[in-house]
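Table S2 (text version). Query chain:
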Amino acid sequence: MTARPRYPQERADRRGPARPEQQAGNRPGHRAWWVAAAAALAIVVAGTFSTMPGILLGPLQEEFHWSRGTIGLAASVNMVLYGLTAPFAAALMDRFGIRRVVVAALSTVAAGSMLTTLMNASWQFTLFWGFLVGLGTGSMAMAFGATVTNRWFTTRRGLVTGILSSGSVFGQMVFLPALSWTIDHYDWRPALVSLALAALAVAPLVWTILRDHPADLGQRPYGSQEFIPKPPAVPGVARRTLTVLRDSAHTAPFWLLAGAFAICGATTNGIMWTHFTPAAHDHGMAITTASTLLALIGIFNVAGTIGSGWLTDRMDPRRLLAVHFALRGILLVLLPLMMAATVNPAMMVFVVAFGLLDLATVPPVIALCREFYGEDSAIVFGWVNAAHQIGAALAAFLGGVARDAFGSYDLVWLLLGSTCAAAASVSLVIRRSPAVDDTAGLPSECEVVSEGRPAG
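Corresponding structure-token output:
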């Protein structure tokens, strides 16, 4: 098998001239946008599963008398698997195709959700929700969005990354209030069955619309002036995924990005999606009201992530990342002062501001991975995202333990807010490659070098 070229110019030399029948890369209605829409739909469903532990915590405590730490453990397993699955899923997409992996993932989360309704012991919750749902949602994580973006777009990558990243929280806006209402008026089991049916309904749509590569349809990637042949399937999924980890782990940017993103996970998924609702309830707020606020954060998250993607195409992603972390830290430190039994103006300011910042870190991190690691960037980002989920898992578990021990989340908000200052500092010292176009935030056609090694 012919080795895959590692540099953009080398790839261009092998392509040859574009054929007349190959469709323009930036025509209106390009299939890339339909593929992105199908990917976003799958990410929306997966994102809804990721936020369920926060509204399940109370009902599970009431029915099974489990501690918050016990429930947080299952959520932690889910988050760790969500992160660890992503880089292997990106390599599986190179081997077996995007469609097959995503449809299998949707089926897995549906199975995990249905089995959770039959559980009667905490270890079953850890197995069904923690393992199966974590495995499935991890296959549709942000590394999946990065894979779709890298294959189908050569321009507007930051914008598309922002749109796909926001899909994981858009599901909260659509489903979370309805699921909370269902739990309040009926039971938690019908809510999980509804989610499982949604995943099964989306699977055939994804299979019909999603395609693995523009060459499958004789098209160029959006914005490309040249036709790009579909690369051959890459065998040895596990070996390749681990090799990419080994190589990237020898570079400083990988560890800096992983450290900053671990803090990102702890201060978003880990604490907010698992403990914001019960924390607000501790102050007398109704669970449905708190869940609605969480859904509103999702609404503003969409705008914030898309806006961050747009900015990533136009400015240094390091500075953008530092600003996001600094502002998020300030909000978390001030959150205990805003908590109350009713929705007040200060809480609404928090909801809007935190929503704009929540996932806004994703587009600049993906851009930095692409800058330093080229064609392997989706897998590298998968590993960086694994660090994100480890941070989230620690916050989900330790946040519950701290609440059980101290009777309050106040110390948790303060400590996590302080870590954001460290993440902002780390973001600024990530080494910038001299071969990057400052106006685009993407690699130029020349070789990208980081720490003495070529990208890819």
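Notes on Table S2: The radius of gyration is 21 Å. The CA atoms of residues 252 and 451 lie 7 Å apart.
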